[in-house]
Amino acid sequence: MEIESNSLAVPTHVTCPNCKEVINTYYQPEGHYFACDKYNCGTVFYSEKAHTEIVTRFKDKSPIEASLPLGTNAWFFGKEYTLVGYLEKYERNEKIRWIEYAFYYPGEQWYIILSEFDGNWMMVHHLTKEESPKTNFNKGATVIDLDNKKFKLAVSYTFDIEKAHGCFDWNLMKDEELHTREYYSLPYVLLSETMFQTTEWFEGRFVNPKDYIIKQPGQKLNLPRNRFFNPATFYDRYKKLIFVYAGFLLLLFLSYGFVSATHPTKEIYNFTNDVKPDTTGYGGFKTYISPPFNIEGTTIVSISGTAMGLNQSWLELSTSLINEKTGTTFEVEHNLEHYSGTSDGEYWSEGETTIKSNISSVPTGTYYLVVRPKVDTLIDGWSSIAYNIGVTQNELPMKDFWVFFWIPIVHFVVQSFRKNNYETKIWPSNT
Ligand SMILES: [Zn+2]
User: Fold this and answer.
1) What is the whole-number distance in angstroms between the Cα of residue 188 and the centre of ligand 1?
2) Is the pLDDT of residue 5 over 60?
3) Is there a single domain that holds both residue 144 and residue 206?
4) Could you list which residues have their CB under 5 Å from ion ligand 1?
5) 270 close to 234: Cβ distance less than 8 angstroms
6) Residue 222 vs residue 230, higher pLDDT
7) Would residue 69 count as lying in a domain?
8) How far apart are CA 405 and CA 333, in angstroms?
9) Of 202, 227, 252, at which residue does a domain stop?
10) How do beta strands 79-91 and 160-168 pair?
11) Residue 19 C-alpha to ligand 1 middle, in angstroms?
12) From CA 314, how far away is CA 380, in angstroms rounded?
């Protein structure tokens, strides 16, 4: 077979010595190890020219449920790689199972690996001696500095290869002798694989595999994704969130501070009055009209209504703020009530006796109030009820402040919870 070394991997075929079926694979000059995942076969074999020999047979002889077919092309670091084999690995202590997809590029010594675990995808590539961290393993490093990132040791394990399929240029079964350590600075991961005295370093990054895979005609890629947590995008956003929300809260405090310093809250008018019957013949209750007062606007005007002596009853206050010159009217309604009692030996009370309403932008001018009270005379008699009306300007609506204050904090706490939940899941024994 004549194939130029710089061309893409091309389809080729090899016959499995166990099940005698033809494996469709992709040519690599050094690819002499094959894995057959035909149903009930599960054979790894070596084949070079006329020499063929079985290396092992897996206990589990069912095919891998791979998300990507062999021959899938993907671009990594500006080169078009081809998927030539995949492996299912199992870490016995943590009962973690994942699939690694090996992408081959002619002339490159190392494969690029896409690793799939629980709907999360990581792209892993080999680091050269110069790129690798300078760490002496005998000292058992738990934190590694690389490229201005602090990687912390998360897990340390060996794995079994449970299933495989495709063509490999190394004896894949030898990988069971590797000792792997994973260091995290999410979304980045640093991996070391040690066999005897030799350590190779790899760098990984959680990714969206669709960013790398070239969609081929007729090839439908239905890649599983973790619906609840995507480390590929989460960690970058999480870091930004800290700055955005901290900046937002600072601005919130500054703007409220600035406004209350330059526009101090000022009481304009306040009075208390009894609810009296209207004796002019119209019935109902006496309307109160205030003397005129000035408002320096444009400003927020707060009108509070308070009921005094309210017991098992209600009081309605309809208040109009009227501009003396233009007749512009702002209306507020206060429905105050107070009920109490005991049920099952427990005292209860309900209703509000003070309510504050804000009018957002009142222009400068001379204003007066018209207040129309209304009480339920049938219950407790109107004569014992009094009301108070207070008018202030420049009072900042603190309700809005607390809404703006809590939204980012609550969101941030929820995100931190999701992050910790995810990290506990991927590193069950991590403490
Ligand atoms: Zn076979």
Assistant:
1) 37
2) no
3) yes
4) 16, 18-19, 36, 38, 41, 43
5) no
6) 230
7) yes
8) 28
9) 227
10) antiparallel
11) 4
12) 10
Report the domain count for the chain.
Answer: 2
Helix (H) or strand (E) holding 337: strand 329-343
Q: pLDDT value at position 33?
A: 94
- Report CA(16)–ligand 1 centroid distance (Å): 5
What angle, 0 to 180 degrees and rounded to 10, lies between the N-to-C axes of helices 231-262 and 398-426?
160
Q: Tens digit of pLDDT for each residue in 336-380?
A: 999 999 888 899 989 999 999 999 889 999 999 999 998 876 444
What's the gap in Å between 53 CA and the centre of ligand 1?
A: 12
Interval between CA 60 and ligand 1 midpoint (Å): 13
DSSP single-letter state for residue 40: T
Residues 75 and 215 in one domain: yes
For the segment 12-37, the average pLDDT, to the nearest whole number, is 88
Give a yes or no: residue 361 inside a domain.
Answer: yes
On whether both 277 and 217 belong to a single domain, the answer is no
Residue 68 lies in a domain: yes
Q: How far is the CA of 75 from the centre of ligand 1 (A)?
A: 30
How remote is the CA of residue 17 from the centroid of ligand 1, in Å? 7
User: Do 29 and 117 have their domain in common?
Assistant: yes
* CA 36 – ligand 1 centroid, Å: 5
The predicted model gives 183-212 an average pLDDT of 90
Distance CA 275, CA 287 (A): 9
Global model pTM greater than 0.85 = no
How much distance in Å is there from the Cα of 72 to the middle of ligand 1?
22
Domain limits for position 277: 266-395
Q: Are residues 336 and 193 in the same domain?
A: no
Do 106 and 137 touch, CB atoms closer than 8 A? no
**Ligand 1 centre distance from Cα of residue 39 (Å):** 8
**Residues above pLDDT 90, as percent of the chain:** 49
CATH number for the domain that contains residue 298? 2.60.120.380
14-18, 134-138, 396-400: lowest mean pLDDT where?
134-138
Q: Is 38 a member of any domain?
A: yes
Residue 14 Cα to ligand 1 midpoint, Å, equals 10
What is the distance between the alpha carbons of residues 160 and 170, in angstroms, rounded to a whole number? 16
